[in-house]
Amino acid sequence: MRPDFYKILASPVLWGVLILAAPLPFLLPSYYLHIVILSLVYVALASSWNIVGGMAGQISLAHSLFIGIGAMFSTALLLKLGINMWVGLVISAAISAVLAAIIAWIDYRFRLGHLSFVLITLAFAEMGGLVVEGWDFLGGASGLLLPRDTGHFLEFQFGGSHGAFWVMLVLAVVCVLVNVAILNAPLGYYLRTIRDNENAARAIGVNVLRYKVAAMVISAVLASIVGTAYVRYLTFADPYLLISPVITIEIVLFATVGGLGSAFGPALGALLLVPLGEILRGQLGGVLPGLHYFIYGIVVIAVILITPQGLLPLFERLWKRRPKVAATGQPTVAP
Length: 335
Hints:
By secondary structure, the chain is mainly alpha-helical. The chain has one domain. The chain is built from 16 helices and 4 strands. It has helices spanning 3-9, 12-21, 24-27, 30-55, 63-81, 85-109, 114-134, 161-183, 186-196, 198-203, 208-234, 239-242, 245-258, 265-284, 291-306, 311-320; strands at residues 144-145, 236-237, 323-325, 331-333. The strands form 2 sheets. The protein has a two-stranded antiparallel sheet with strand order 1-2. The chain has a two-stranded antiparallel sheet with strand order 3-4. Helix 5 packs antiparallel against helix 6.
């Protein structure tokens, strides 16, 4: 592990942000607290997807399947078999890991191109949606309603929005730190080598299958865990929300706008776009149907056209160009 990882862990900026976030549940009205929780959910999901989509360069649309397994299967195990959701979380994550490994093996075995991989993962996601909608054990098209949240943590209950905020904050931080750890570990180097030139990576002896499977499994497990926590917060397992490819497209959008392949880019994209979309919907949704989507789309297109590499690289360039005070006391501008 490179020293940069430990520097980030000890960074006062990281701990300062967490300290500032601590009192939010006590300061925000319920509507805005919901937006913050939703933002943290997407920070975690976008960061988990970034491992395979940004670092390894494999644009996967199967993450709605992993989120759906974490949400729908753990809920079904609780309601139909009485299995604690903590155990259901582990079982769902294990199933997601196996499916992710199978997808990665198919990609390696058949040397799929980028478009073929996208279509294969989309097919897996659609098949998962059909299974959920057609299987009564998973609630079918009607979904599943979880018991009321009474705050018993050992029963995977968070005690309402305040507890959900802390759980989602922890998950978001963990997913971001996993990104930081991978980027500063040999795995990160191998994934970026595979992303940039897979044939060259094979030629120099990189075990492409091992690292593709590792990236996909880590990403899927994190997405499944977040899906389980998310459905506990929602209290209703809605298959049209949780296992729809739309949720994957949103994740890809947030990661792309923030900055693919970086540790903090996907988190930045989610923290900016999720509140923007929710506030526009709340303020303009009743004025003219679809107006908030139109404005949201314009903002996203403008960001992509202005900074194709994402917002984080733009902010980093602006930060490096900021005026600095020299020893003479006169401000200077970095080249």
